Amino acid sequence: MKLQRNYKFWFCTGSQDLYGDECLRNVAEHSRIIVDELNKSGILPFEVVLKPTLITNELIRKTFNEANIDEDCAGVIVWCHTFSPAKSWILGLQEYRKPLLHLHTQFNEEIPYDSIDMDFMNENQSAHGDREWGHMVTRMGIERKVVVGHWTSQAVREKIASWMRTAIGIVESSHVRVMRVADNMRNVAVTEGDKVEAQLKFGWEVDAYPVNEIAEAVGAVSESDTNALVDEYYDKYEILLEGRDADEFKRHVAVQAQIEIGFERFLEEKNYQAIVTHFGDLGALKQLPGLAIQRLMEKGYGFGAEGDWKVAAMVRIMKLMSAGMKDAKGTSMLEDYTYNLVPGKEGILQAHMLEICPTIAEGPISIKCQPLSMGDREDPARLVFTSKEGPGIATSLIDLGDRFRLIINSVDCKKVEKPMPKLPVATAFWTPQPDFATGCEAWILAGGAHHTAFSYDITAEQMGDWAAAMGIEAVYIDNNTNIRDFKKDLMLGNVVFGK
Ligand code: MN
């Protein structure tokens, strides 16, 4: 998927005029070289734009306010080349509302032992200039990322690149609009939540539509448009009739093609980027949207099942954060379904009734048509596949009544030992870190849900930084987790975030 905006990041160097014009010329020239080299590195997913050196209160305030109103600016990177008295930054920082990265670097990598004098020291003093600046940002309680090291280092560039994707998740969050065409499944707790608080914290608009309005849009899709998409499906995917009549099978697939087109037109027309459905509330729809939703997720839409709008929004955000990533392995809604408890082979089989995003697939993708075993509609067509191996993160955003908590579990995805020929759904399989028992115990203690927003491409650090920018609690379950300390993390969260 592609982002709708051509996002850029501004590079603002802090300095002062105490050391004369020549020093300021060097500061500007060094900044230009750093920005040029960062852009040429091929590591950063977005362009860095050099801004004039920031010296005065007036220019700093003006620059940060321009960053606020420039819709293509997704964040500001600040570095203090020389000392830059931080009181000059207070008003600008107070008014700034976008992601902030503090790049703690210096132009020279090595101390120039033979030539170093006091002029050099005064010109190249980020070691204390950046401390002055960092002090002010901390005193003001402003969330920011700090990246430390020489600007030519691959590790530093990769950290900047990673933060840029976090920043996209932050600035895009307030543009996420979720369409609910069904309420939450009756009696289910974890899919509920405070939509007003979600808009306050994350900027999400979560609106409901009668399911038959979108069903009408589906009904309005022409037979020729539908058939053209069915042809595309038949070209792209394997068809597994499994004894069904070929024409009857195709008619079932066509229902999903019509839903895909109708849903997408309805979402686009009304400017929504995420959707929830519910198998028990389908109105005039002939099938639970399965293949159709899988295809929409592949295009970048967020999705949550059974009315789970929090997961729909999180899937959307994680897809935005990984947009355009080279060699991306995929992002999807998943559900913890059933366990393998054989010692040494423990893991969680991830699936859903139908709606798993094919971006996480590995190997062939097939269309099957099978009874749903729930609800009262036609057997829905769906894409069936297994998923990639390797590390990923499963996230669960829960509403604790007085606040949101984001639970982030690092997981190791594996192949299941044997094929599952009778299971007509897409699957993934993973072992939670640090191990199955500790990971599951921590997840349950934290109150994690059974629906998750999962990604191979986004890191726990990125999601934790996103949560911090949203002003909500985040807890990590990974190879550093032990239950005794994890309980303390939860207690600390209650103290800091509880009301
Ligand atoms: Mn579910």
Short description:
The protein is α/β, with parallel strands linked by helices.
Describe the structure.
The chain is of the alpha/beta class and 499 residues long. The protein has two domains: 166 residues, 3-Layer(aba) Sandwich (Rossmann fold), CATH 3.40.50; 321 residues, no CATH class. 39% of the residues lie in helices and 22% in strands. The chain has 15 helices and 19 strands. Helix 8 packs across helix 10. The longest helix is centred in the middle third of the chain and has 24 residues. It is elongated and about 85 Å long. The model has no long low-confidence stretch (mean pLDDT 96). The structure holds manganese (II) ion (MN). Manganese (II) ion binds next to loops.
Strand content: 15-25%
Alpha-carbon distance between the two ends? 39 Å
Mean pLDDT: 96
Count up the domains.
2
Question: Strand order, biggest sheet?
Answer: 11-12-17-16-15-18
Helix content: 25-40%
Secondary-structure-based class equals alpha/beta
Shape: elongated
Helix run count:
15
Radius of gyration, CA atoms, in whole angstroms: 25 Å
Largest sheet: 6 strands, antiparallel, barrel
- Bound molecule types: manganese (II) ion
Low-confidence stretches: none
Q: How many beta strands in the DSSP annotation?
A: 19
